[in-house]
Amino acid sequence: MSLLRLLFNIAWFVLGGFVMGLAWWLAGLLCFISIIGIPFGRACFVIGEMAFWPFGQESVNRKHLTGNEDLGTGSLGLIGNVIWFLFFGIWLAIGHLAHALACFVTIIGIPFAIQHIKLALLSLTPIGQTVVTKPV
């Protein structure tokens, strides 16, 4: 990991990433209450880890990454994303957008705001997505 990426991740964690990462993990714990919610909960923990340390990571569609369609990237994934949006997605997106607005106040906060916007978009439809590390 490059030094700049590490510094940005530490600053991110201290200035709001910790809160949003915990929000993702809380959503994951709530999803684990039912058997049907377990795939949603797993996605929450993966994306929650990205919410803690977003610099150097990105989300990609699993179908584009593997070339194969699975349950999350097909029609069941679409239904899952609609259910997700209604229960958790909108609230996580609002949280990320609120943090993004706070970060856009200063020039130094712009990279952090951009990461919050990426995570807000991901929070709307996380089913069928996976997190990968960007090459240095």
Structural write-up:
- By secondary structure, the protein is mainly alpha-helical.
- The chain has one domain (3-133).
- 68% of the residues lie in helices and 7% in strands.
- It has helices spanning 3-31, 38-52, 62-66, 75-103, 110-124; strands spanning 57-61, 129-133.
- The protein has a two-stranded antiparallel sheet with strand order 1-2.
- Helix 1 packs antiparallel against helix 2 (38-52).
- It is globular and about 40 Å long.
- It is a multi-pass membrane protein.
- It comes from Shewanella litoralis.
- The chain crosses the membrane at residues 7-26, 32-53, 74-91, 97-114.
Largest sheet: 2 strands, antiparallel
**Helix-strand topology string:** HHEHHHE
Distance between the termini: 7 Å
Q: What would you call the structural class?
A: mainly alpha
Shape: globular
Helix content: 55-70%
Overall pLDDT score: 90
Query: How do the strands line up in the largest sheet?
Result: 1-2
| Count of individual helical segments | 5
| Domains (count) | 1
Radius of gyration: 15 Å
Number of strands: 2
Beta fraction of the residues?
5-15%
Low-confidence stretches: none
Keywords: Cell inner membrane, Cell membrane, Membrane, Transmembrane, Transmembrane helix
InterPro entries: Inner_membrane_protein (IPR052937), UCP028777 (IPR031308), YccF (IPR005185)
Protein name: Inner membrane protein YccF
Transmembrane segments: 7-26, 32-53, 74-91, 97-114
